[in-house]
Each structure stands twice: as structure tokens, then as C-alpha cells.
Write a structure and sequence with these properties.
heterotrimer, A mainly alpha (about 350), B mainly alpha (about 100), C mainly alpha (about 170), B: about 100 residues, mainly alpha, Helix Hairpins, about 75% helix, about 0% strand, C: about 170 residues, Four Helix Bundle (Hemerythrin (Met), subunit A), 6 helices, disordered C terminus
Chain lengths: ~350, ~100, ~170
């Protein structure tokens, strides 16, 4: 095999790794969600199928696939069918812009730890994460049911409101990083960790430079993925099932998967933007040569561990906090998060311009 | 070889379709969408032409026009909502009064 | 690479035109809105073939991510039904003829244009556009932000309900 062939083969492997990461985490997450919630409520949770109930997600999948695929009589068929796919595709695409590992040399070239290394990566990420709303809104509208319609309506208003705070909080990070390229943003966080005596300020992960932006982004992330305490589009105690009330079988499971892949996606964005990506303090002192395959694999594992911690946090919050009321949700978005994010950008801009 | 002329042709077709939608449809919202389509095709011409001069300047022009479009959509939709409250319709042919 | 560029251009152009037609033809306003999203994404792809990367990201972010969600929100809020089909009257036939004339005159204008060599002084990256905005076009930039502010205030004034006791609505 020539060098070029090796390179493209490795590229394919990379694609596979990133996408299995997105899909493979879903059943694990579903299982973890149920076990953790059971633990928090002094229950057992699923423990019958396989050892420790580990095979429960697969049993659920078989069950969902065997169910009848219902389409409501007066629904608009085309929109009803494409809506679940529309919620699933954007989070998948998000994963392809995330630098999950450091780059390494292969066949005389540099193999990057990201599928698409775009110069405007972070903008595309924001754009993609805002596209998820179409699936929910369209699904809710096409079902021709009042609960679904209300769910879809809520999701579109919620997304627009929180998208704004999220974008503005990222703006402050961009001020600090000075680039729109995600690989570059991650790389700058890994160079130095701790107090920098020459410049006199903290260097390292962006979460230390931008704690307020991190908190705003985190809160907005809950709203963007429709997780409790912001799960108003599906709010089962008010709207039956919200936007997916009329869905069953595979279409329902696509919505379900979309939510979990969305969680994986938004956690990856958080890790890459604020938590140093694949880096941990002292990583370069371990003796592994940067730019080689073992270093890359170590980076990937660190990245996975960080996502895991965030996902656990997501699950923990879901089973701890009650749901907000709709007017409270809007008030937090517009009157608290957005002004705070704007203030943060103002201060950051002044500091960056001053130094 | 794809030249600027090809982009002009695509933009022309999009503009004509937008005009068609604006002239034929009666739903105010769809008419508004057609206007957005025409605006977008104009942007396409701007950026395609900028390729031969200064792409950064052309993009800056287009960005300002995107900002204008965003402002316009906000105001336009607010007017449509106010209109719907008043008349309970979005049919352009039924909105004939000048007085509210 | 040359072939790839051509293919990308034609695919994007065909998607843009086809979904633009769907916007006009569909009688269901939600389907129209979704087709328009398709057109905007395809135009963003066309910007990419022009190397205007920043603008293409902004196109997706602003048009597909914000403007069309707002459209969809309003359509769903008003709960619009399908438009009934009625026979075209004189006005609509005239409108159709007018847009056909417009199409042919625009295309003939476009075909008469001579392509200059594509030698752009600067590229379309974020940094270069920022340079332009904060040197030569500072005034238009500030005006654009002022325009957005005015629009924001205007929207709240227009869409707010008049009765003071029902003021918990207005943003969105």
C-alpha cells in the first residue's frame, strides 16, 4: 500500500471512531440514566436482562422496533416522517467538527484528530445546534395534535431564546482565543497550565479564564438539548409527551436517540471550548511523544472521560431539579442569561483590548 | 470552468422565483418568504462579483444586508401578528382597508 | 479538484432552485418554510464554492438558525391551514407573465456579462472581514447595529398587546 492509501484508510478509521463514539454512547447513556436515577431514588433500576441489566437498552430497542409504526390520520405524512430524522442529523454533524484527540504523524503527513477542520468551526457548530429545533417543531406541527403543537411551539421559542445567550457566551471565549478554528482553540488551552509569570495571568483551560461564560453556556446547553429543568417541549405532566406524543416505534426511537446524541454533542462542545479538550495538566510530562499514535489515543481517552463526567452531571441534574414554568424559562433566558453574557463580553473585550 | 456568469444565472432564477411567489401567493407569510428569497439571490450576486475584486469587502457588504434582513424579518413578522389579531386572516386580498 | 468544484456547484444550484420552486408551489405554509430552509442551506453551499467561508456559516446561523425558526414559530402560532386552491384570475396570470419576463431579461443580462479573472485581493475569512469592518466600514457597521436595536424596540412595540393587564407576552 502506498502512503496515500494508508492515509485515506486511516481517515476512514477516524470517521468510524468518531461516529461510533456518537452512536455507541447512546445505549450506555440510556442504561446509565436509568441506573443512576434508580440509585438516587433508592430503587434497583433495570437489573434483569443480562449481568447488572446491561443488555436492557438492546431489549428496549428490539421492543421499539417491533411496535406498530402509527401515522395519525390527519397528519401531513411527509413532514411527519422526516421530522425524527431532522432531530438526529445535526448532532451527528456536530461531532464531525469536534477535535476529539491531538493530531499525529502518519505516512509523512499530519493526521488531525478532527473529521472536518473548518476555519469557522465554532460558527458552524452553533448553526448546526440551532438546526435541531426544526425536527421538534415540524414533528409537533405535523402530528396534528394540540399537545404536539404546543410542544413544537415551545421548543422553537425556547431554542431562539437560549441560542442567543449561548452564542454571546461563546463570543467571550472567542475574544480570549482569538480564532474561530476549534482545533486552534483546543491547542491554545493545552500549551500552558497554571499561573503564567511572564504575562501575569492564568493560562490554560478556558473555564478558568471565562467561568461566567462557562456557566451560561452550560445552562443554555440544558435548554438546547431539552433536558430537565428545561424540558418544556415534552413536559410529560403538562403535554402528555409534547412534540413526540403521536410518535411510535422507530420514529419515536429516533427522537429519543436524537436527544441523547444531542447531549453527547453539546458535552463535546463544552469540553472542547472550556475544559481543554483532550488535555489534562501534566499530560506532556508523562513521557509520551506528542504527535505519535499513543499520545493521540491517550488524548482520546481523556476526552471521553471528560464527556463522561459532563454526561453524568446532565443525568444528575435531571433527577434533582424540578421543571421550570414557561414564563420563568423565558425570564431567565432574556432577563438574566443574555444581559450577563453581554456584560461578560464587554468586560472580556475591555481586558483583551487593554492588555 | 464555473465562472461568475453561472452564479448570475442561478441568482436570476432564484430572483424570478421569488418574484413569482410574491405576485402569485395570497398568504402574507409566504409572500414575505419570497421577498427573503429575492434578497438572498441579490446577496449571491454580490458575493460572486466580489470574487473578482475583493472578497472580504463583498462579504462585509453581504453581512450588512443579512443584518438588515434579520431586522426586517423581526419587524415584518411583528406586523403580521398584529394584523392577524386585528383581522384574523393572513390573506393579502382580504386586507384592503387602509384604516385599522 | 476542478471536476469536484463543478459537481458541488451544480448540486447546490439545483437544490437551491428546486426548493425555491417548492416554496412557491406548496400550499402548506410550514412546508414552504422548510423548503426555504433548504434553499438557504444550498445558497450557503454556493458561498462555500466561492470560498466565502465566514459568510456561509453566517448564512446558516442567521437565516436557517434564526430567521426561519421565527417564521415557523409565527406560522405555528397563527395555526395556519392549507391555502384553498382557486382558479387563477387576471391578476395572477399577469403576475405569472411578469415574472417570466423578469426571468428572461435577468438571464439575458447575466449571459451578457463577461467574467473577469477571479483575482480577489483578500479572502472571505472572519479575520479579513473583521479588518474591513473595523477600518473602512466602521460607520456602516455601527449603523447596522443601531438598525437592529431600532428593529428590536419596534418589534416589541408593534407585537405587544395593548391591554396593560396582559403584558406577559411580546418577546419571541
Amino acid at each position: 500500500m502506498s502512503d496515500t492509501q494508508v492515509y485515506y484508510l486511516a481517515y476512514l478509521v477516524k470517521l468510524l471512531v468518531v461516529f461510533t463514539l456518537a452512536v455507541g454512547l447512546v445505549p450506555i447513556l440510556v442504561y446509565a440514566e436509568r441506573r443512576v436515577s434508580a440509585l438516587m431514588q433508592f430503587r434497583w433500576g433495570p437489573n434483569r436482562v443480562g449481568p447488572f441489566g446491561l443488555l436492557q437498552p438492546f431489549a428496549d430497542m428490539v421492543k421499539l422496533l417491533c411496535k406498530e409504526d402509527l401515522v395519525p390520520e390527519r397528519a401531513s405524512k411527509v413532514l411527519f416522517t422526516i421530522a425524527p430524522a431532522l432531530t438526529c442529523i445535526p448532532p451527528f454533524l456536530v461531532m464531525s467538527f469536534i477535535p476529539v484527540a491531538p493530531s499525529f504523524a502518519l505516512a509523512g503527513r499530519e493526521m488531525k484528530g478532527v473529521v472536518v477542520d473548518s476555519p469557522v468551526g465554532i460558527l458552524l457548530l452553533l448553526a448546526l445546534s440551532s438546526l435541531t429545533v426544526y425536527g421538534l417543531a415540524i414533528g409537533g406541527w405535523a402530528s396534528n395534535s394540540k399537545y404536539s403543537l404546543l410542544g413544537g411551539l415551545r421548543s422553537s421559542a425556547q431554542m431562539i431564546s437560549y441560542e442567543l445567550a449561548m452564542g454571546v457566551s461563546v463570543l467571550a471565549v472567542l475574544c480570549v482565543a482569538g480564532t474561530l478554528n476549534l482545533t486552534e482553540i483546543v491547542y491554545r488551552q493545552t500549551q500552558f497550565f497554571g499561573f503564567d509569570a511572564t504575562s501575569g495571568n492564568w493560562a490554560g483551560w478556558n473555564v478558568f479564564a471565562q467561568p461566567l461564560a462557562f456557566v451560561i453556556f452550560l445552562i443554555a446547553a440544558f435548554a438546547e438539548t431539552n433536558r430537565l429543568p428545561f424540558d418544556l417541549p415534552e413536559a410529560e405532566s403538562e403535554l402528555v409527551g409534547g412534540y413526540h406524543t403521536e410518535y411510535s416505534s422507530m420514529k419515536f426511537s429516533l427522537f429519543f436517540m436524537g436527544e441523547y446524541i444531542g447531549m453527547v454533542g453539546i458535552s463535546s462542545v463544552l469540553v472542547a471550548l472550556f475544559l481543554g479538550g483532550w488535555h489534562f495538566p501534566g499530560m506532556h510530562a508523562l513521557g509520551l511523544q506528542p504527535g505519535t499514535l499513543p499520545f493521540t489515543i491517550l488524548g482520546l481517552l481523556v476526552f471521553l472521560a471528560k464527556i463522561g463526567v459532563l454526561l453524568f452531571f446532565f443525568i444528575h441534574v435531571r433527577w434533582t431539579l424540578p421543571r421550570f414554568r414557561y414564563d420563568q424559562l423565558m425570564r431567565i433566558g432574556w432577563k438574566v442569561l443574555l444581559p450577563l453574557a453581554l456584560l461578560n463580553v464587554l468586560v472580556t473585550g475591555a481586558v483583551v483590548a487593554g492588555s | 470552468m464555473i465562472t461568475v456568469v453561472d452564479y448570475y444565472v442561478v441568482a436570476s432564477i432564484l430572483f424570478a422565483i421569488g418574484a413569482l411567489g410574491f405576485l402569485l401567493r395570497k398568504n402574507v407569510l409566504v409572500m414575505f418568504m419570497s421577498v427573503e428569497l429575492m434578497l438572498n439571490s441579490a446577496n449571491l450576486v454580490l458575493v460572486a462579483s466580489a470574487k473578482s475584486f475583493d472578497l472580504a469587502r463583498g462579504s462585509a457588504f453581504a453581512l450588512v444586508s443579512v443584518a438588515v434582513a434579520a431586522a426586517e424579518v423581526g419587524v415584518g413578522l411583528a406586523i403580521i401578528i398584529a394584523l392577524f389579531r386585528l383581522k384574523a386572516t393572513v390573506d393579502a386580498e382580504e386586507i384592503t382597508n387602509l384604516r385599522g | 479538484m476542478e471536476v469536484l468544484e463543478r459537481v458541488a456547484f451544480y448540486v447546490m444550484a439545483v437544490i437551491a432552485v428546486a426548493s425555491a420552486l417548492l416554496v412557491v408551489v406548496n400550499r402548506n405554509p410550514v412546508a414552504s418554510a422548510m423548503s426555504l430552509v433548504g434553499t438557504f442551506l444550498a445558497v450557503a453551499g454556493l458561498y462555500l464554492t466561492l470560498n466565502a467561508t465566514f459568510l456561509s456559516a453566517i448564512q446558516v446561523l442567521v437565516y436557517a438558525g434564526a430567521i426561519m425558526v421565527l417564521f415557523l414559530f409565527v406560522i405555528m402560532l397563527l395555526n395556519l391551514e392549507r391555502e384553498p386552491f382557486d382558479l387563477p384570475g387576471f391578476g395572477r396570470i399577469a403576475g405569472f407573465a411578469l415574472s417570466v419576463v423578469l426571468l428572461f431579461s435577468l438571464i439575458s443580462l447575466a449571459l451578457n456579462a463577461t467574467a473577469r479573472p477571479e483575482t480577489s485581493a483578500r479572502g472571505g475569512s472572519g479575520a479579513e472581514i473583521g479588518d474591513v469592518f473595523f477600518s473602512d466600514y466602521l460607520f456602516p457597521f455601527e449603523m447596522a447595529s443601531l438598525l437592529l436595536l431600532v428593529a428590536m424596540v419596534g418589534v416589541i412595540v408593534v407585537a405587544r398587546r395593548r391591554k396593560p393587564e396582559e403584558e406577559e407576552e411580546g418577546e419571541a
